């Protein structure tokens, strides 16, 4: 487990801190297919391994939004905020997908707590995240995530 803080005051003290990296997780074809079923996005580049093998990436690739959705479980390995009543995903400031995630690849998150700002009843954090693919030359996703924590 990464960093654990108790309460908003301890969280504020972490502003500007490197949060480290999560463990690696595998993005399986089964996970990609499940995401396709959940979202209705069954484009062949994701769900047809035979056709995708002959496509531009040489294999099926994860949906960009699947990669993005894995930010939350990866992030929970980096920072655990205790002593608050509510934790809310507030949104994203930016997201880019510089490189695809091929089925069977492993990814992890490197994070930095860029900002902690006060909001009525709590704080908002901005986390700069980079989702890396094992052995990849470019990141799979680069993002700034916003979350709110209320006392």
TrEMBL record:
<dbReference type="InterPro" id="IPR039375">
    <property type="entry name" value="NodN-like"/>
</dbReference>
<dbReference type="Pfam" id="PF01575">
    <property type="entry name" value="MaoC_dehydratas"/>
</dbReference>
<protein>
    <submittedName>
        <fullName>MaoC family dehydratase</fullName>
    </submittedName>
</protein>
<dbReference type="InterPro" id="IPR002539">
    <property type="entry name" value="MaoC-like_dom"/>
</dbReference>
<dbReference type="InterPro" id="IPR029069">
    <property type="entry name" value="HotDog_dom_sf"/>
</dbReference>
<feature type="domain" description="MaoC-like">
    <location>
        <begin position="15"/>
        <end position="119"/>
    </location>
</feature>
<comment type="similarity">
    <text>Belongs to the enoyl-CoA hydratase/isomerase family.</text>
</comment>
């Amino acid at each position: 487990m990464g960093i654990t803080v108790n309460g908003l005051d301890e969280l504020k003290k972490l502003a500007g801190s490197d949060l480290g990296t999560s463990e690696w997780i595998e993005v399986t074809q089964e996970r990609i297919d499940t995401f396709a079923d959940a979202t209705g996005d069954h484009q062949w580049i994701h769900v047809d391994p035979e056709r995708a093998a002959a496509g531009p990436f040489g294999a099926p690739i994860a949906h960009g939004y699947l990669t993005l959705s894995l930010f939350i479980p990866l992030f929970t390995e980096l920072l655990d905020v205790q002593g608050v009543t509510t934790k809310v995903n507030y949104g994203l400031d930016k997201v880019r997908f510089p490189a695809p995630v091929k089925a069977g690849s492993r990814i992890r998150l490197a994070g930095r707590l860029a900002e902690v700002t006060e909001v009525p009843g709590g704080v908002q954090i901005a986390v700069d995240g980079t989702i890396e693919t094992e052995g990849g030359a470019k990141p799979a996703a680069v993002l700034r995530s916003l979350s709110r924590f209320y006392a």
